[in-house]
Amino acid sequence: MSLLQRLLEASYPSLEVQMQELKRTFLDHMIHLLSCDHVIPVVSYIHKCMISGTLDHSLIRYFVSEVLSIIGPPYSTEFTSVFLPLLQNDEIVSSLVSQTKDDPVSLFLAECPHKSKKKKKSKNN
Q1: Which superkingdom is the protein from (predicted)?
Q2: Is the pLDDT assigned to residue 66 strictly greater than 70?
Q3: DSSP 111
């Protein structure tokens, strides 16, 4: 996981478009780690990236979307405590939420063991 973390945090300005695609691939590998029972370390790392601004919001949005497509209830309190902040960032989830509330974000929130009504906006990106 530390190798993937270093690769995600690397910056190569001259290869910006290619790096976004590579970082998406690295996120796919992190999602695989998540499916191999490394849930809390992976989600905690992505949460840290959101707070620090080291990962573009579009990549975090991709991560959230992919995770929501592979998980299902019941959700542990520990998982929701680290995943929920990603869903409370409007810049990340606004394009994932539908008016009909039948989108994966709304369905997750409906099943969440502890919900927070507070929405957070990020200062980054």
Answers
A1: Eukaryota
A2: yes
A3: H
Phi-psi bin for 116: left (phi > 0), alpha (psi -120 to 50), beta?
beta
Cα separation, 55 vs 60, in Å, equals 7
The conformational region for residue 74 under phi > 0 = left, psi -120 to 50 = alpha, else beta, is beta
pLDDT averaged over every residue in the chain: 85
- Is pLDDT of 4 > 70? yes
What's the CA gap between 23 and 43, in Å, rounded? 16
DSSP lists the bridge partners of residue 89 as: 120
Place of tokens 């989600």: 43
Question: What DSSP character marks residue 89?
Answer: B
Q: Which two tokens stand for residue 15?
A: 């290869």
Strand, coil or helix: 84: helix
Could you identify the residue written with the tokens 């991709």? 62
Q: How high is the pLDDT of residue 102?
A: 83
What is each CA distance from 1 to 54, 65, 76, 93, 99, in whole angstroms? 16, 20, 22, 25, 37
